[in-house]
Write the structure tokens for this entry.
Amino acid sequence: MLTTKMRRLACAPLVAAVVAVLAACGSAPVGPGFYRVERGDTLTKIARDNRQAVSSIVRWNNLPNPDSIEVGQVLRVAPPAGTASAATSATTSTASARSRSGAAAAPNSAPAEAPVNVANAPPISLVWPAAGTVVRRFDGKNSKGIDIADTAGTPVVAAASGTVVYAGNGLRGYGNLLIIKHNADYLTAYAHNRALLVKEGQAVQQGQKIAEMGDTDNDRVMLHFELRYDGRSIDPSRSLPPR
């Protein structure tokens, strides 16, 4: 029979992988004109994808070393209000010229993740993880899930049955975070909680209270809820019942 310590050691690689996936895919949403650095990004790539000059992004963000950017770092990729951006006009003209000549023009922004064929994803039936108002919906780029706002202490429940694979606050931008693995394909994440009521390795049932809504590592009380299929974020609204 496995001891608690042995079970934790056995789960450690899985927990590390899950946390790495979340970190690589971004945390709290960023506003228009900003971009969160992801794994494999370079400043040149970010500048190209946002039709800006590298020198402009360096200047807007006061970067001491343009060759040293970190995963999760938020960069301004559009000129501050009232600032003219000659580079934007120049690159836009270049993109238009390329388009007229048949060459591919640079996109406005790089996709945050590789595309997921949701049509091939096996169905999963979820319940709403908390009462409240949906104040931000999934868009796959700046928002990796949905944000549900209510009062502090509002119960947070497991959207589906599974096993808690992470319970802690070690991932910047998520505050007190729970991650539940439901099967080989799906996991859900619950961020910014005031209190966590379950532990790593614990089995939970759909609808079971697992946390209390809070504002840890956030500027308002809300639950940030994510659904991941094969490690990639997908719109949880597709699997939630109508409200």
The chain has four helices and 13 strands. The longest strand covers residues 186-193. Residues 174 and 191 are 5 Å apart (CA to CA).
